[in-house]
């Protein structure tokens, strides 16, 4: 589709955070290799949004298809965080589940999920929740078939709600500084527990607690990249090559890793306390570090790299 | 939701051979425009779905101005509006036509 070509600008300079889902896909894949499934001309739109007098999108906020990455075949799904916060509705979720199931037949080198989502679309919540569950099951089946599922997170909606759960089932995750991964978002926590517990307007607190640097330091994400499409492409290629096996040993290692995390950091009141305990010398400086300085810090932290997931 | 459809006759077809293109995102103050080269070369149809009712006259003027400037013969244009201002609509329409001419 010609709109994809509008993005054929230098992927080295294209900001992942600023780009649309279509621009990310076009610039991430090998030039001209992306073939979309159910493109906008098919008009597979939400059957629910008109009931709420809300506008629909021709692709229901997700772009799915096949492409090559460094010559190897991959399947790609990209959420559009600007349409309804990238939230999962019936069609949106169905397209992702269908893509993952297709991977079992097409046997690509990897499935890439470009998360940009606040979670389930409240106007079609039952269908959205079902889609989250079906997506997680489909990812498990794809991984069991030996195909890595790589999540890339650096969009403006972050990766929240059911999206955060799905990210937890991926083989590996790459995140940028602006990427955020969690289940309950800042506003949800504040609404339920009060601003004393979590002040959603304190942006530094939000990024410290859920942002890419924190997730990378604690091993929640497996690669940290600069906010360019090129950096995400390089990270994806690297992670495909070192995806963990999907077997009992990996799952037991993940269980042990998470138990150890609670034991070591369960009493920390702030992310900086966690970083200090991880062995970061000057934790207050972490948020201001550039990518290279941060990578050097990560290299000295034992928990950041693991065989689990 | 308000649905609007405008049909125009153009003096010439839109140059180029790109079969379809999409531009923009359905977000607050933005819109997405799908262009498809499926009509007779002197016809242009623009169908709009907008959650902001009561601005048919403004849409009609913006669309007429675009058709006069771009002469988008042969193109069916479908718009999902997120409450875009007229200048944004004009910009996106011209961006879409440019993609089709590539």
What is the gist of this entry?
Chain A is an alpha/beta fold. Helices cover 41% and strands 12% of the residues of chain A. A seven-stranded mixed sheet of chain A has the order 1-2-3-4-5-6-7, sandwiched between helices.
Outline the structure in words.
The complex is a heterodimer of chains A (309) and B (102). Chain A has helices at 2-5, 21-28, 90-106, 125-144, 162-169, 186-193, 203-210, 212-217, 229-241, 248-265, 271-278, 291-299, and strands at 35-37, 62-69, 72-79, 110-115, 149-153, 172-176, 223-225. In chain A, strands 1-2-3-4-5-6-7 form a seven-stranded mixed sheet, with helices on both faces. The mean pLDDT of chain A is 94. Chain A contains twelve helices and seven strands. Chain A is an alpha/beta fold and 309 residues long. Chain A is globular. Chain B is an alpha+beta fold and 102 residues long. Chain B has a single domain, classed as Ribosomal Protein S5, domain 2 (2-Layer Sandwich), CATH 3.30.230. Helices cover 30% and strands 33% of the residues of chain B. Chain B has two helices and five strands; from the N terminus they run E-E-E-E-H-E-H. Chain B has helices spanning 56-70, 86-101, and strands at residues 2-9, 20-23, 31-37, 43-50, 75-81. A five-stranded mixed sheet of chain B has the order 1-4-5-3-2, covered by helices on one side. In chain B, helix 1 packs parallel to helix 2 (86-101). Chain B starts with a strand and ends with a helix. Chains A and B meet through helix 1 of A and strand 2, strand 3, strand 5 and helix 2 of B.
Topology:
The complex is a heterodimer of chains A (309) and B (102).
Chain A: H1 2-5, H2 21-28, E1 35-37, E2 62-69, E3 72-79, H3 90-106, E4 110-115, H4 125-144, E5 149-153, H5 162-169, E6 172-176, H6 186-193, H7 203-210, H8 212-217, E7 223-225, H9 229-241, H10 248-265, H11 271-278, H12 291-299
Parallel strand pairs in A: 3-4, 4-5, 5-6, 6-7
Antiparallel strand pairs in A: 1-2, 2-3
Helix pairs in contact in A: 3-4, 4-5
Chain B: E1 2-9, E2 20-23, E3 31-37, E4 43-50, H1 56-70, E5 75-81, H2 86-101
Parallel strand pairs in B: 4-5
Antiparallel strand pairs in B: 1-4, 2-3, 3-5
